Every structure is written in C-alpha cells, then in structure tokens.
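hiii so um. not sure if this is the right channel but i have a protein structure encoded as tokens and i wanna go backwards to a sequence. like what aa goes where. can anyone help
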C-alpha cells in the first residue's frame, strides 16, 4: 500500500510539474499580464498533454491485461470476489489500515479546501 500511495503521489507531482512547465512555455509573458486568449491556449496544451497521458496508460493497460488461452480477457467471478472480500474484512489489522488511509485522505482533502478558501474568499493568488 505504501508503494501504491507513494507512487501515486510521485506520478501526480511529476505530471503536475510537466503541466506547469508546458503552461509556462506556452505563455511568453508574465501570467498576470497575459490575456484570456493566451491563458486559454496554454491551458489547451495542458489538457492535450493530460489526454495523451491518460490514453497512453489506457493502451498500456489494454496491452498488458491477462488473457486466457482463447485470447479473451480473464474475468473473475463476482461471487469468488465477494467471498475473498468477506474473509479479508474479518482481519482486524485491515480495519486499522482502512482508518489510517481514510484519515490521510480526509486530511489531504481538507488542505485542498483551505487552498480554495484562501483563493476564492481571501483572494490570495
């Protein structure tokens, strides 16, 4: 779980940094002096970059999915999955991990709310 969450954070930071770099390369002037058309054009390239990354990941997932002998994607029985989920939920440490992960995400989302409040209400840039 640590590798998953850490990897997710690293990938998000990397994609965010590349997006900011693309935005800064497209806008030739200071962001405060750029007009709306220039900002929209720069943001358009950020959206195109994000769309490319998502499409590439979707293609990689499709290529590397496990298939059976006939070349069809393996399907897991939902009853088998429910049985496994029930057995895992009986483990006490799983509940403790769920509380820790939920607390971390709540704290993360609260920081997002504070930054929106500072931007929208307190007019910080």
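sure thing!! here u go:
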């Amino acid at each position: 779980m640590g590798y998953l969450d850490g990897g997710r954070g690293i990938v998000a930071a990397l994609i965010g940094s590349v997006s900011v770099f693309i935005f800064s390369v497209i806008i030739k002037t200071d962001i405060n002096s750029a007009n709306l058309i220039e900002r929209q054009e720069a943001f358009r390239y950020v959206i195109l970059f994000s769309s490319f990354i998502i499409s590439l990941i979707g293609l990689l997932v499709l290529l590397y999915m496990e298939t059976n002998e006939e070349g069809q994607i393996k399907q897991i029985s939902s009853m088998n999955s429910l049985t496994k989920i029930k057995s895992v939920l009986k483990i006490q440490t799983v509940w403790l991990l769920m509380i820790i992960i939920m607390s971390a995400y709540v704290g993360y989302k609260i920081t997002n709310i504070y930054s929106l409040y500072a931007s929208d209400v307190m007019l910080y840039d």
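oh and The chain has a mean pLDDT of 83.
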